[in-house]
Design goal:
By secondary structure, this protein is α+β, with helices and mostly antiparallel strands. It has two domains: 35 residues; 154 residues, Mago nashi (Mago nashi protein, 2-Layer Sandwich). Strands 1-6-8-7-2-3-4-5-9 form a nine-stranded mixed β-sheet. The longest helix has 33 residues. The chain starts with a helix and ends with a strand. The relative contact order is 0.17.
């Protein structure tokens, strides 16, 4: 075999071996991903004993329904959206008018019944009460989100630290598009409740 053909054959063999190795790595990662509940294996999760009570929760009809969604971190601004069964919503948020000051504001508004019903259905659809207690990427600072739900006398909290599962992203999208955006005027007009630093 001519030298050029031998060189091409060696390169082709090396490429095929690399491709086979990449396929095996991808397959192993997929198996580990699914075994870890569709969460990457390097993400730390913590189970929640409350999940054992999930069958007792009627999240779509419980009269004591409460929902809370927090987003922020210790070194920056934060936002908390709270919804009760009757559609009353409180949005507590912080803003920085300047580098040396921080204001906390709070807005109150009413959600329509359809929005509250759709929120309850989404929580039931994602099987919220079966989720882990926490999901963490183990990253210092970054972004954290916490979801709290009460229904049928049972309360559950899910903490996400720099890793946000699909179900959490669906909830965040709902909060943004169905709760906050339609009430932007009320939120912008929210009065200052606390002021820190120099104006």
């Amino acid at each position: 075999m001519p030298p050029q053909r031998r060189s091409f054959a060696r390169k082709r063999k090396s490429l095929l071996l690399l491709l086979a190795g990449a396929i095996l790595v991808a397959l192993a990662a997929t198996i580990a991903y699914r075994a870890h509940g569709n969460v990457p294996p390097w993400i730390h999760t913590e189970s929640d004993p409350i999940s054992d009570k999930a069958s007792f929760v009627d999240i779509e009809h419980a009269p004591d329904f409460q929902f809370s969604f927090y987003e922020g971190n210790a070194l920056s601004t934060s936002r908390i959206t709270q919804v009760t069964a009757d559609g009353a919503c409180t949005y507590h948020y912080s803003v920085r008018p300047s580098d040396s000051s921080l204001e906390e504001r709070e807005a109150h508004f009413q959600l329509d019944a359809v929005t509250v019903t759709d929120l309850r259905r989404l929580l039931a659809d994602i099987d919220y009460f079966q989720k882990k207690r926490s999901y963490s990427a183990g990253v210092f600072d970054g972004l954290q989100r916490t979801i709290k739900v009460k229904a049928s006398g049972i309360e559950k909290e899910v903490y996400c630290d720099n890793y946000f599962p699909d179900f959490e992203e669906r909830l965040r999208a709902f909060v943004t598009s169905r709760i906050l955006n339609p009430h932007a005027k009320e939120i912008d007009a929210g009065p200052v409740t606390t002021r820190y630093g120099k104006p």
